Amino acid sequence: MTNASSQLNDHNLPQFSAAGVRFEKRPAKRPDGSVAQGLYNAWIWLDNPTQFNSYTTEMVKGVILAFRAASNSRDVVSVVFTGTGEKAFCTGGNTKEYAEYYAGRPEEYRQYMRLFNDMVSAILACDKPVICRVNGMRIGGGQEIGMACDFTVAQDLARFGQAGPKHGSAPIGGATDFLPVIVGAERAMAACVLCEPFSAHEAYQMGMLTDLVPALNVDGKFVANPLVETQRLYDEYGRLAFGKPKTGAALAEGKALLARGKVDLSMLDARVEDLCSKLLLTFPDCTTKTVEELRKPKLDAWNRNKENSRAWLALNMMTEARAGFRAFNEGPKDNREADFVAVRQAIAAGEGWSAAMTERVLPKAKKSA
């Protein structure tokens, strides 16, 4: 009798090796730690740590094909999407590439956004449940591709947030689609418009995370993020302060404790493996169908908006994005935002966007006294 496996069709696209993206299979394990022979979890890594795992055009291609490969692998149970190192899961698109290549070139950026849209869609269409392992910052486009995942397990030193209007864009690569579904309209509005980062503890309280674990190891013991309030406390204005940054003496004490410890992601990895083990002990097709149904609110919003968002983002590369991305790329370390007041004053006076206006609103290094 012919071996049945030799008759199986290969449904994968041609393999693409992308610098900055790693794909590996790790043996699937039962809850007791024993290996389930012949079964694996696919790990997809954003591997650009020197630029906080921001994705380049080539990396986007790699992520698309990696998710396609994981989705089609008959022996894969779950997909873990993560980043290299302890600083960042992903901080979004590579701002150096944006500023130096795409700024002022809307047709080129439109083509890039086709790839970006396909990356988000590849996550939402994966036939396996997808876990976002948040090893560090999840900001901007990194937040968007993270929210496309089905589960999120984060280490509690991580920070979350959007960058859109602060850097010359709008967070319409998924944030305006997914955040209202996940956290509600008001919190989504604050996150997307104000672009104020928030702690992992606050993200957990808002319902953005499946699980949260400490990552700071001090003298052999894990401690919660010492820079934020981790209890349901109220500040002097009566606002809930769960996950809010500490201030004053408490902040100083927290920084001292942080300096004494080291970042240890072993508990994060254990919690991710635990979730993978729970997914292993389910019927595969029933799990896929359940995941597909639960994705629908995000998927419906995404499919409704992704094409007109792509068109707007391309045109925006001639105006505010051109200034915003250049400001972030070229500005001094302590000043990477355009002069928003000058932009608004020019527009109020009827001035149109021009190369001269862009140059005028870029940040300048502060003069020493």
How would you describe this protein?
This protein has 369 residues and is an alpha/beta fold. The chain has 2 domains: 10-215 and 265-316, 2-enoyl-CoA Hydratase, Chain A, domain 1; 331-361, no CATH class. Helix content is 44%, strand content 17%. It contains 13 helices and 13 strands. It has helices at residues 57-72, 95-102, 106-124, 141-147, 175-183, 185-194, 200-206, 248-260, 266-280, 284-316, 320-330, 340-348, 355-361; strands at 21-29, 35-46, 76-83, 88-90, 130-134, 137-139, 151-155, 159-161, 198-199, 211-213, 216-218, 221-223, 262-263. It has a 6-stranded mixed beta sheet, with helices on both faces. A 4-stranded mixed beta sheet has the order 4-6-8-9. It has a 3-stranded antiparallel beta sheet with strand order 12-11-13, covered by helices on one side. The radius of gyration is 22 Å and the shape is globular. The model has no long low-confidence stretch (mean pLDDT 93).
What are its keywords?
alpha/beta, 17% strand, 369 residues, globular, four-stranded mixed β-sheet, 2-enoyl-CoA Hydratase, Chain A, domain 1
Gap between N and C termini = 85 Å
Q: Count of DSSP E strands?
A: 13
| SSE ordering | EEHEEHHEEHEEHHEHEEEHEHHHHH
Tally of structural domains: 2
The gyration radius over C-alpha positions equals: 22 Å
CATH C-level of the largest domain: Alpha Beta
- Please, what is the CATH homologous superfamily of the largest domain? 2-enoyl-CoA Hydratase, Chain A, domain 1
CATH topology of the largest domain: 2-enoyl-CoA Hydratase, Chain A, domain 1
* Uncertain residue ranges: none
User: What is the topology, as strand order, of the major beta sheet?
Assistant: 1-2-3-5-7-10
Largest sheet: 6 strands, mixed
Which percent range describes the beta-strand content?
A: 15-25%
What structural category do the secondary elements indicate? alpha/beta
